[in-house]
Structures are given as structure tokens and as C-alpha cells.
């Protein structure tokens, strides 16, 4: 066992050189590489943490948005349902109204048609009645229909109560003593004088009577003094006949608004 | 039978002998430096790292952790010295499985040189830490009477380091030589394996002891009355 001091010195130098070389080629590069990698990993980890927090924030935001969307969707559905209900109700109302209008129009047309039929019937019946009445009067009373009418009218004047006569005489005074008699058929002079006499007897003796004709009366006489009128005519009978006919048509044609009966 | 590679002179020029110790030391140095250079020239800092780089990183980080465990605050400062001690001794010992190779650590000259390096490094690191005066004052702590003992401790420590390493490595070589002559087939292999283990352990012990000496010399800054480190040789 011996120590070669020259070798010792050489080994010391060798060792120091090796320290320097390894520091240059091993320790420093490896340590720096590890430090850099650690820094990089730390950076990426922090980036990942940031990204994760961002993603979580985004996810939370999206979830809230989704909730809002779902809520608004439900609200929209509810509104749409309400709107659809309203629309359906409005359409039903419109349809109902239209049906009602059509029904009314149909009833109106029906009424017009029935009125026309009734008018034709009344006209024809009226003429028929006049013919029959005239023929019967001529055949059995030996006089014409105008004379009978005048007679009947004179009787009606005679049957007037005191209050009516008072009103007529007041009207005659206000009208300056003038009266007008209209008849459906031309009156004979004897019939006229009979009526004039009845007027003078029952209402006022100084009334000046003028005569005229009105086809709408058919058979009958109308006395007009001022604003007062006294009438007896076949028209009234025809009105009653019309009422009767209306009732017959109604009973055969369904419900309808009842017409007010005409009164004399 | 040669027991020291010092006596194996390969080249002589004007009285300067180039013995096997120095040559094999150069071989170990070349192996370490070239191997390190080959790996660190292509260092990767990404996710994919070559297995050689991983191996070097493991070695370097383990050495650093060991230094830190001994108590150094800044392991990076001691890494080149302690790490080189360990790597050089370990490589020199492990290569003894190569036929014809004589480990330079089996030469007392090498181990003395390494021990002298430690002897010098301890005060250098300590002076670098806290200055020359403070370092010199540790020799007269706790009383000036302790100065001779402190000096003897320094020297004996160095000699112990050198002889321990030399004895272990040289004994391994000698035992293998004896066993080959006695039982030439099986036992030398077992002893070679045992020698690998011993060589690695010696490298570890040498490096750790050096670090303990350096660390304890530095720590006395904080604990001037701390007991001197105990030698933990095998």
C-alpha cells in the first residue's frame, strides 16, 4: 500500500476537471430543463385552472340561459295557447254572428215573401168581397153598394157618443165649417145628401161638405173635419181578414214576430 | 499480485509515469462526460422525454434530494461537488465488471485525492458561507483548548474517508483474485455481484459523508456549540 503523490495530484486535477465538465454538461442543463419544465407545467396548470374556471363560468351562464329559455318557452306556449283560445272564441263568435245574420236575413226574406203573398191575397180577397158584397146588396136590397155604404155611415154618425160629436164640432169650428167626405166608390147624389144631412143633424148644421174619392178605402166612407177623422170602410174588415190570414200563415210557416193588429 | 493500479505503468516519459489509475480515471471521466453530453445535447422540455434523459433527471434530482435531506438549504450549491463524487466513485466501481478493468478507486492515491478534495472543500464552502474569520473561530470553539482536537478531527476524518473507500474497493478486488485461485467457477461471480453492491454503497457513503462534513461545518454558524459530526463508517 503506497501513495503516489504525483498520481494524487493528477487525480485531484482530474476530479476538479470532472466537476467542471459535469457541471457544464450534466447538472446545469438537467436542472435548468427540469426547472423550465416545472415552470411550463405550472403555467399550463394555471392556464388549465383558468380555462376550467372560465368553462365553468360559461357553463353556469349557459345553464342560466337555458333555464331562461325554457321559462320563456313555457311562457310563450302559455301565451300562444291563450291566444289560440281567444282566436277560437272570436272565430266562434264571428261564425255564430254570421249564422245569426243569415238566419235573420232568411227570416226577413221569408217575412217579405209572406207579406207579399198576404198583400196579394188581401187584394184579391178584398176585390172578391167587394164583388160578393155588391152583388148580394144589389140582388137582395135593390140598391147599389154606395147607397148602402152611405146609409151605414150615416148610422155610424148617428151612433157617435156625445163626446165624439163635441170633438167633431170643435174641429169644424176651427176648420172654418168645412168638412170632406171621401168614399171608395162614387156616391150617388141621394147618398151624398143623406150623409150631408146626417152631418148637419149630428155635428153642426152649418158645415159645408165636399166629396171626393179614395181607392184605398175600397168600400167605405171617411169623414175629415180639420184634424178629426171618422171612417167606416171595408179596409178595416180586410185588415181583420189580413190578421186572420197572418195567423193562418204563421201556424203553417213557423214562429214569426206578430204584427200589431190595425184598429179603426 | 498487484493490488494497486498505481503500480501498472502503461507509459513512461522522462520519469513521468502514466499508470493505470490515471488512464482508467480518464476512461470513467470520458464515459460520464460523453454520456451526459449525448443526453443533454437533445434535452426535451415537453411532454415526451427520452428514457436516458429521464434516467439522468432521476439521478440528479435524487442526489439533490439527498443533499437537501442532510440539511443543506441550497442543494444546488453543493450538487456539482457531491454529485460528481458519487457519480465518479459509483461509475468507477460499477465498471469493475468489465474484464481487464481496474477500478481507480482501488488505488489509495485516488481515494486520498478525493479525501483531500473533501478536506479542502469543507472549509471552502464554510468560508464562502460566512467568511474566513468566522470559520477560523470555529476551531477555538467552545474553548481555545479544543484547537488541537479540532485539527486532529479534520485530519483523521480525511484519512478515514480515504482509507474506507480504498479498503473496500481494494479488498473486493483482492477477494475476487483469491477466490479465482481457490474456486474458479462460481464464487467469483457472487463476489463480483457483491462487489457491485459494495461499490455503490461506498459511493453513496463517501458522498453523504462529504455532505455531512460540509453541512455540519456550515450549520455551526447557527449552532456554534453543536457537537462535531460523528463518523458513520461501516
**Order of strands in the sheet with the most strands of chain B?**
1-2
Strand content of chain B: under 5%
Identify the overall geometry of chain B: globular
The strand order across the widest sheet of chain A is 2-1-3-4
Short description:
The complex is a heterodimer of chains A (264) and B (234). In chain A, 75% of the residues lie in helices and 9% in strands. Chain A has helices at residues 5-141, 145-159, 162-174, 189-202, 234-253, and strands at 178-183, 208-213, 220-225, 228-233.
Task: Give an account of the 3D structure.
The complex is a heterodimer of chains A (264) and B (234). Chain A is α+β, with helices and mostly antiparallel strands. Chain A contains 5 helices and 4 strands, in the order αααβαβββα. Residues 253-264 of chain A have low confidence and may be disordered. Chain B is mostly helical and 234 residues long. Chain B has one domain (5-219). Helix content of chain B is 68%, strand content 4%. Chain B contains 7 helices and 2 strands, in the order ββααααααα. Chain B has helices spanning 20-40, 51-70, 75-94, 108-130, 132-137, 147-182, 187-219; strands at residues 9-13, 16-19. Chain B has a two-stranded antiparallel sheet. In chain B, helix 1 crosses helix 3, helix 3 runs antiparallel to helix 7 (187-219) and helix 4 (108-130) packs antiparallel against helix 6. Classes of the chains: A alpha+beta (264), B mainly alpha (234). At the A-B interface, helix 1 of A face strand 2, helix 1, helix 2, helix 3 and helix 4 of B.
Descriptive key words:
heterodimer, A: 264 residues, alpha+beta, 4 strands, 75% helix, disordered C terminus, B: 234 residues, mainly alpha, two-stranded antiparallel sheet, 7 helices, 2 strands
SSE order and pairing:
The complex is a heterodimer of chains A (264) and B (234).
Chain A: H1 5-141, H2 145-159, H3 162-174, E1 178-183, H4 189-202, E2 208-213, E3 220-225, E4 228-233, H5 234-253
Parallel strand pairs in A: 1-2
Antiparallel strand pairs in A: 1-3, 3-4
Helix pairs in contact in A: 1-5, 2-4
Chain B: E1 9-13, E2 16-19, H1 20-40, H2 51-70, H3 75-94, H4 108-130, H5 132-137, H6 147-182, H7 187-219
Antiparallel strand pairs in B: 1-2
Helix pairs in contact in B: 1-3, 2-3, 3-7, 4-6, 4-7, 6-7
Amino acid at each position: 500500500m503506497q501513495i503516489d503523490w504525483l498520481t494524487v495530484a493528477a487525480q485531484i486535477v482530474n476530479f476538479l476537471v470532472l466537476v467542471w465538465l459535469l457541471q457544464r454538461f450534466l447538472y446545469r442543463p438537467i436542472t435548468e430543463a427540469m426547472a423550465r419544465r416545472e415552470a411550463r407545467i405550472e403555467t399550463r396548470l394555471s392556464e388549465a385552472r383558468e380555462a376550467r374556471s372560465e368553462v365553468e363560468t360559461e357553463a353556469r351562464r349557459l345553464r342560466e340561459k337555458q333555464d331562461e329559455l325554457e321559462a320563456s318557452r313555457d311562457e310563450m306556449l302559455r301565451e300562444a295557447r291563450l291566444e289560440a283560445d281567444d282566436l277560437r272564441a272570436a272565430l266562434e263568435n264571428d261564425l255564430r254572428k254570421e249564422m245569426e245574420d243569415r238566419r235573420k236575413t232568411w227570416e226577413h226574406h221569408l217575412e217579405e215573401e209572406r207579406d207579399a203573398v198576404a198583400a196579394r191575397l188581401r187584394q184579391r180577397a178584398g176585390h172578391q168581397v167587394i164583388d160578393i158584397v155588391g152583388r148580394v146588396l144589389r140582388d137582395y136590397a135593390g140598391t147599389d153598394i154606395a147607397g148602402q155604404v152611405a146609409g151605414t155611415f150615416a148610422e155610424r154618425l148617428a151612433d157617435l157618443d156625445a163626446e165624439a160629436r163635441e170633438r167633431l164640432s170643435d174641429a169644424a169650428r176651427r176648420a172654418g165649417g168645412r168638412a170632406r167626405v171621401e168614399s171608395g166608390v162614387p156616391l150617388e147624389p141621394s147618398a151624398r145628401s143623406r150623409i150631408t144631412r146626417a152631418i148637419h143633424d149630428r155635428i153642426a148644421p152649418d158645415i159645408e161638405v165636399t166629396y171626393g174619392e179614395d181607392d184605398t178605402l175600397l168600400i167605405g166612407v171617411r169623414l175629415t173635419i180639420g184634424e178629426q177623422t171618422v171612417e167606416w170602410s171595408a179596409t178595416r174588415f180586410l185588415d181583420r181578414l189580413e190578421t186572420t190570414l197572418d195567423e193562418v200563415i204563421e201556424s203553417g210557416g213557423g214562429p214569426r214576430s206578430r204584427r200589431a193588429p190595425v184598429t179603426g | 499480485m498487484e493490488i494497486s493500479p498505481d503500480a501498472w505503468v502503461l507509459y513512461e516519459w522522462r520519469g513521468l509515469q502514466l499508470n493505470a489509475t490515471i488512464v482508467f480515471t480518464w476512461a470513467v471521466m470520458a464515459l460520464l462526460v460523453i454520456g451526459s453530453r449525448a443526453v443533454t445535447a437533445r434535452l426535451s422540455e415537453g411532454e415526451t422525454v427520452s428514457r436516458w434523459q429521464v434516467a439522468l433527471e432521476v439521478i440528479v434530482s435524487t442526489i439533490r434530494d439527498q443533499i437537501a435531506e442532510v440539511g443543506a438549504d441550497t442543494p444546488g450549491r453543493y450538487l456539482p461537488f457531491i454529485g460528481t463524487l458519487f457519480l465518479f466513485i459509483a461509475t468507477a466501481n460499477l465498471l469493475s465488471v468489465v474484464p481487464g478493468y481496474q477500478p481507480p478507486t482501488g488505488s489509495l492515491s485516488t481515494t486520498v485525492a478525493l479525501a483531500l478534495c473533501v478536506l479542502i472543500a469543507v472549509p471552502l464552502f464554510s468560508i464562502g458561507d460566512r467568511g474566513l474569520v468566522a470559520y477560523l473561530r470555529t476551531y477555538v470553539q467552545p474553548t481555545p483548548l479544543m484547537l488541537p482536537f479540532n485539527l486532529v478531527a479534520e485530519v483523521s476524518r480525511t484519512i478515514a474517508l480515504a482509507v474506507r473507500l480504498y479498503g473496500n474497493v481494494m479488498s473486493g478486488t483482492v477477494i475476487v483474485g483469491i477466490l479465482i485461485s481457490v474456486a474458479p467457477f462460481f464464487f467469483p461471480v457472487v463476489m463480483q455481484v457483491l462487489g457491485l453492491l459494495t461499490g455503490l454503497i461506498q459511493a453513496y457513503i463517501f458522498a453523504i459523508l462529504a455532505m455531512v462534513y460540509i453541512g455540519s461545518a456550515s450549520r455551526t454558524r447557527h449552532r456554534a456549540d453543536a457537537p462535531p459530526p460523528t463518523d458513520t463508517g461501516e
